[in-house]
Amino acid sequence: MPRRSPRIHLALTLAAALALLAGCATVPPVRVPVDTLPVAQQVRARENLRVFNAVWDLVHRRHYDPKLGGLDWNAAAATYAPRAAGAPDETALYAVLNAMLAPLHDSHTRALTSQQADDRRRQMRARTGFSMTRIEQHWVVSEVLPGSPAEAAGVRVGWIVLSRNQHPLSETLSFRAQDGEVVAWEFRDAEDRAVRLSAAAKPLSTASRRIARELEGGFVYLRFDEFDATDRRWLGAELKKHRQAPGVVIDLRWNPGGETFSLGISIGEFFDRPVDCGTFITRSGARQVKNSWQLGSAEYRGRVVVLVDGGTGSAAEIFAAVLQDHGRATVVGRRTAGAVLASRFHGLPGGGELQLSREDYVAPKGRRIEGAGVEPDVTVRRRLADLRAGRDADLDAALRVLRGE
């Protein structure tokens, strides 16, 4: 049998590789007539469609729910592909992508622009520098970041937030500041006086805040805002340092989640043996029970209270659910976000990313938390008067639990 020339062999190899790639990707069943657009728009439209097709394909092939909750994904392509092609810039394109993804009602599937993807990796984001929470039908300043434009402008915890750039706030917040953007805010202060302030947004760290302090009675308060390598090491070290403390309060009210690996290690700090951390379910229906990681565990034996609210999401919710299901902690506060799907980030053409849910989750006792959240054992109603007076009603309730009152 004659040997193939290197050139022929290379051509056959490339053909086989292209065939394999074609079998691994799908194209939306819709044709957008880009050639009919003005020449100046054709390049933009083609690039937009490259991004659109990548998002559509990844959801089609890899979303944890192969039925997509009954959503007609081909019809979605027919509706949104022309809009994506016509988007004048990246911001408009990603608005179209997220509009297409919204009917999935999926807490962990979203498209990030190249800037948002870069911010995520660098743990930086342009902000004015204060957090808001919903209390008594108002958006209220719940935290002002040290060194932020908001702090310099004089924003105070407990102020009611009325508007942003003269637009009243709705029940759902969706704005995002740009670096250097001057944002005009209107507030009502603690004396119910109108306060108008402007501040230029600047890049601020989104990395976790970690706070440890001793409370009366020998109890210990620990707050961390992410499940990652740095925070899990910090948590383990603090629990070992305070191994003799009769009880700890783990504050997850600002914690939106993080890595499942760090989650398993963090759960293990409170047990002397591996425990069931719940079941992850893949697209194919395969079920995998994850256990806690005990190597190097603090094996903390004191009482535990976990503080949660609507800002507690993903891995933080799983942490609360696992300790609750095993009777290891009392959960105090308000219902969590209900956003626990396991996701991965996929790079997109042009530098953006698609965060895509790849696995569902069921807690150790069989409850599904996505969309439902974790209900606290002790519900605390937040009051504006408490926040303005510097009282933390959640922490007060936690101390009562630790004291056995």
Descriptive labels:
32% helix, 405 residues, alpha+beta, 2-enoyl-CoA Hydratase, Chain A, domain 1, 19 strands, 6-stranded mixed sheet, Pdz3 Domain, single chain
Fraction in beta strands: 15-25%
Characterize the quaternary organization of these chains: single chain
Number of domains: 3
Helix content: 25-40%
Q: Please provide the ordered H/E string of secondary-structure elements.
A: HHHHEHEEEHEEEEEEEHEHEEEHEEEEHH
Continuous helix count: 11
What is the CA–CA distance across the termini? 88 Å
Structural class: alpha+beta
CATH fold topology of the largest domain: 2-enoyl-CoA Hydratase, Chain A, domain 1
- Extended strand count: 19
Shape: globular
Low-confidence stretches: 1-23
Q: Average pLDDT value?
A: 91
**What is the assigned CATH homologous superfamily of the largest domain?**
2-enoyl-CoA Hydratase, Chain A, domain 1
The CATH architecture name of the largest domain reads Alpha-Beta Complex
Largest sheet: 6 strands, antiparallel
Q: What top-tier CATH class of the largest domain fits best?
A: Alpha Beta
Gyration radius, rounded: 25 Å
Can you put this structure into words, describing what you see?
With 405 residues, this protein is an alpha+beta fold. It has three domains: 99 residues, no CATH class; 82 residues, PDZ domain (Pdz3 Domain), CATH 2.30.42.10; 192 residues, 2-enoyl-CoA Hydratase, Chain A, domain 1 (Alpha-Beta Complex), CATH 3.90.226. It is 32% helix and 24% strand. Strands 3, 4, 5, 6, 7 and 8 form a six-stranded antiparallel sheet that branches. Strands 10-11-12-15-16-19 form a six-stranded mixed sheet, sandwiched between helices. Strands 1, 13, 14, 17 and 18 form a five-stranded antiparallel sheet that branches. It is globular, with a radius of gyration of 25 Å. 36% of the residues are buried.
